[in-house]
């Protein structure tokens, strides 16, 4: 995140249907973009938050040729959104409804959606139930088939849960856990990732999500069959689709990516070189690939 990750947007609080407070960042671009350009709504991964998209949001909202309004969301229990007292409500159906509530509150009837990992699963739910709100979709290292080896990596990472002493330590922990998959990242990139993932409290970086969310993943039974989402994926059929796959991802395989493109002709596939699960979207040539995709919409 390099410099300031707390400017360039307007922070807003929106109440979910059950009253829980959801936090969003609204990168408005300029007035013309708000009035004439389709907004972009970004949904983060399982334990991640809106800061994951900060640098991409700045690039897109400040684009000299075609600035866009970008909305980034902290799902319930993550980032600055409130934790849910009913832990069973950390599920895809509730989180999909939260997205619809945010859209309604911001008077957004249709948007381009970016979903990273868990956020992309939420988009599968919306594709099945509310495809009309999806003008176009970018799935970041997620698809209808979740590989058990990738799920095991996420579970094991959450189980380790080593607490960082400072920001340097936080970056080192991330590099230890993910360095073999994210070979393209520099030391500055690891520092950026740390500041996107961790909050700062009590004088040190801390996990920025309700621990109950990690418990769900930590208790996942990988011996049981993992249902696929091909029926829900069918909902994307008439919607422009881009799939970004981390070159070293274990969660989304090349075989699944190829099958997605076969079932959805016209899918734009982008491989994030030197990255794993889930790719940093502001990195390398990915922003330009996203610009090209959305320029047609």
Short description:
The chain has 297 residues and is α/β, with parallel strands linked by helices. The chain contains 11 helices and 10 strands.
Describe this structure as you would to a colleague:
- This protein is an alpha/beta fold and 297 residues long.
- The protein has a domain at 10-147 and 227-294: Rossmann fold.
- It is 36% helix and 18% strand.
- The strands form two sheets. The chain has an eight-stranded mixed sheet with strand order 1-2-4-3-5-6-9-10, with helices on both faces.
- β3, α2 and β4 form a beta-alpha-beta unit.
- α3 packs across α4, α5 (148-160) packs across α8 (211-218) and α6 packs across α7 (187-197).
- It is globular, with a radius of gyration of 18 Å.
- It starts with 9 loop residues before the first strand and ends with a helix.
- Rg from Cα: 18 Å
- Give the neighbour order of strands across the main sheet: 1-2-4-3-5-6-9-10
Q: What top-tier CATH class of the domain at 10-147 and 227-294 fits best?
A: Alpha Beta
Separation of the first and last Cα atoms:
28 Å
**Approximate helicity band:** 25-40%
Model regions low in confidence, pLDDT < 50 over at least 5 residues: none
Would you tell me which CATH topology of the domain at 10-147 and 227-294 applies?
Rossmann fold
Largest beta-sheet characterization: 8 strands, mixed
List the helices and strands and how they pair.
Layout: E1 10-15, E2 21-27, H1 31-36, E3 40-43, H2 54-61, E4 70-74, H3 92-105, E5 111-116, H4 118-129, E6 134-140, H5 148-160, H6 167-178, H7 187-197, E7 198-201, E8 204-207, H8 211-218, H9 230-233, E9 241-246, H10 254-263, E10 268-272, H11 286-294
Parallel strand pairs: 3-4, 3-5, 5-6, 6-9, 9-10
Antiparallel strand pairs: 1-2, 2-4, 7-8
Helix pairs in contact: 3-4, 5-8, 6-7
